Amino acid sequence: MKLAITTILLTLTYATAITGTARSPVTKITLRSRVEVQPAQTVVLKDVAQINGPRNAVQKIESLPVATGPMPGKNSFLDSSEVQQRLQARTGIAVPVSGAQRVELVGKCIRFSTQELANRAREFVLEKLPADGRIFEVTVDHAPKEIVTSFGEAKIRTRTLTPEVRPGPVAVAIDVVVNERVVASTSVTLNVKATAEVLVATKAIRQGEALTPENTVWDQRNVTRKPEALIRSRTDLTSMVAARPISPGELITARDVAASFTVRRGDTVTLTVTCGSVTLRTSAEVRQDARTGDMVRVRPAVSSEDIQAKVLGPGVAIITR
Fold first, then answer.
1. Which of 7, 60, 245, 281 has its CA 20 to 30 A from that of 297?
2. Options 2.60.40, 3.40.50, 3.40.1580, 2.60.480; which CATH number does 5-108 get?
3. Tens digit of each residue's pLDDT (9 = 90 or more) over 213-236
4. Which residue, 231, 232, 229, 253, is CA-closest to 243?
């Protein structure tokens, strides 16, 4: 920065112990237009001015207090007339002042801007979101306040103010930490939008009806407000049926579907009966609809009574004793 300066020509007369008539050379004091100073600390003449002249004369005035530093990031102004008065009080000589009349004092600080803090919070939230195939977009709903501190070794630490990070509103606290001690804090409210390719009904689907490409479509949708387990990633539909009536345009969740029945009432299956080392096979009639893994009532061809068997797959059931 080009410094606008005001020059004070100060002639200090010093009488020697022997003659009392000797004079010092001219001492030149150049006030700076703007300086950064330590907050709440005493500001001396050498902080705000360049001082040239005889060493003994410079030493006499360079530590002259002229102001107190403003708080971090704040500013105050020092009039050259006030400098003149303080010099006169120190030396007993009226000091002429010319040029610019004020020095701007700025408290030294580290400034964390609103944008920087918001970006830190966004990065923090994105790291916390699950990598499950959804696409997340994080925007700022309520921006954080700028943080200004005088500490030189300050660092940013983020933490959530909500129980978990998930799509929707997320509150994040932002702390400025020095030596593991929080010296300043602010907060930001973010909004997490989630999109994903999901299964959508294109027409009304009755309960028990199979899901097919004719009644469903894969589409990219906003799933921010759908906490349920949506059917995604091009899941195979051939073994799925609707667990409830589904309306056109509905996003289909895992709770909306069920595996289709492996065997139906009236089907004939091969029934394997195992008892120790003995295995018998016969045919049996299925007495109820069932899926793979279900226990189902069957009636063996050699019996007039129903018994329980486990469905292993299409056309296969087993009894183990």
1. 245
2. 2.60.480
3. 899 999 999 999 887 777 776 766
4. 253
